[in-house]
Design goal:
This protein is an alpha+beta fold. It folds into two domains: 24-177, no CATH class; 187-337, no CATH class. Helices cover 25% and strands 44% of the residues. The protein has four helices and 17 strands. It has helices at residues 19-69, 225-234, 278-287, 293-307; strands at residues 72-76, 80-82, 87-91, 95-99, 106-118, 121-137, 143-155, 158-170, 173-185, 188-197, 206-215, 239-248, 251-261, 267-276, 317-322, 325-328, 331-335. The protein has a 17-stranded antiparallel β-sheet that branches. A hairpin with a 5-residue loop joins β13 and β14. The longest helix has 51 residues, at 19-69. The radius of gyration is 33 Å and the shape is elongated. The termini are far apart.
């Protein structure tokens, strides 16, 4: 019996799988899955953005209704959603508040306001006024405020305010602040102001001012500021100034102490201070017309006794403000203007 052997022939290319085709299919499937995933993420993010802005809009309108019920005059446009995809914001348009149920009239308006949350800080509510702001307290003259950028953030008891290139138009002239950073944590305030120019001290620009202070008593909720101040004083309210510093030209001030309101609701202060470079600064204030030459001469004489004739090297000395007179080491330096509280009533 004979056997027939069959030699296997070569496999044709048609029957062999092409790895390039399979790889292309896998890439195509992965791209489709990625596209669907991205699309779903965009849809979910859009739904979440719409939900947050809708809730924010509802709460904002309810807040305005609450102010109106308390007697405030509120002028506001319908808020518009904005900020997608990086923020859930409301563009409020021009906004104006005027009045209150009793006490001192307060009026504030802004050309525009944005309110909402940024994706980097989703738990912090941000408020950003834009354009010209107008402010009036009580019977005092109205003043205006403009800023290249201004942002207010609220997170529980923490309130943070930042601003750039602020211009405050006061009756006596313009006050300018190049940069502002302020933060409150409950009763504690920490603030830094840079490049400050005051109307009466244009020749003596302030490079930097810092403050770290705490209220020992919360301010009562009374609308009338005189009533608020009186109640706060009677409760033993004190401002503990842990650190204060100011640099203006060659003048360098470092101070700490406690401040309160006296029986006439005027500020009173007890503390210590270190002054350096006061003599050139006093000369600049005289040239600016901020203080008379006779006052500068008297201050120079007293500070010369305390710090030396050069006016540069300083030592820590007691500071006191009582009955409107500011004293260093028991030497009266200058009488400050009386603090005028706004008149009550609308």
């Amino acid at each position: 019996m004979s056997r027939t052997s069959v030699e296997p022939g070569p496999i044709s290319n048609a029957s062999r799988p092409d790895p390039n085709v399979n790889g292309s299919k896998r890439v195509s499937i992965l791209l489709q899955i990625a596209f669907v995933g991205v699309l779903m993420a965009v849809v979910i993010h859009g739904l979440a953005w719409a939900y947050v802005t809708d809730r924010l809009r509802t709460q904002y309108l309810a807040g305005l209704d609450g102010l109106r019920q308390q007697g405030w005059l509120v002028v506001s446009e319908q808020p518009r959603r904005a900020g997608w995809p990086m923020a859930a914001m409301l563009q409020l348009g021009p906004l104006a508040l005027d009045g209150g149920p009793a006490g001192v009239p307060l009026a504030w308006s802004a050309a525009g306001v944005e309110l909402g949350f940024h994706i980097r800080h989703p738990a912090i509510l941000q408020l950003a006024p834009t354009g010209l702001q107008r402010i009036r307290l009580g019977q005092a003259p109205e003043f205006t405020l403009t800023a290249a950028a201004m942002d207010v953030q609220a997170d529980g008891e923490t309130l943070q305010v930042t601003g750039q290139d602020l211009v405050l138009a006061l009756p006596g002239g313009e006050a300018r602040v190049g940069a502002l950073q302020a933060r409150t944590d409950g009763p504690t305030l920490r603030a830094t102001l840079a490049l400050v120019q005051l109307p009466d001290l244009r020749l003596l620009p302030v490079q930097r001012v810092t403050l770290d202070a705490t209220l020992t008593q919360p301010v009562p909720a009374a609308v009338d500021p005189i009533q608020q101040a009186t109640q706060w004083r009677d409760l033993g309210g004190i401002v503990e100034v842990r650190a204060f510093s100011a640099q203006a030209g060659e003048l360098d001030i470092r101070a700490s102490g406690t401040a309160r309101l006296d029986a006439a609701l005027q500020p009173a202060l007890e503390g210590t201070a270190i002054l350096r470079g006061y003599r050139p600064s006093l000369d600049a204030m005289v040239r600016a017309g901020a203080i008379p030459a006779s006052a500068a001469l008297a201050v120079n004489a007293v500070l010369g006794l305390l710090f030396g004739r050069g006016g540069q090297a300083g030592a820590m000395v007691p500071v006191r403000l009582a009955d409107g007179v500011l004293s260093l080491a028991g030497f009266p330096l200058v009488r400050l203007p009386v603090l005028e509280w706004p008149a009550s009533g609308h």
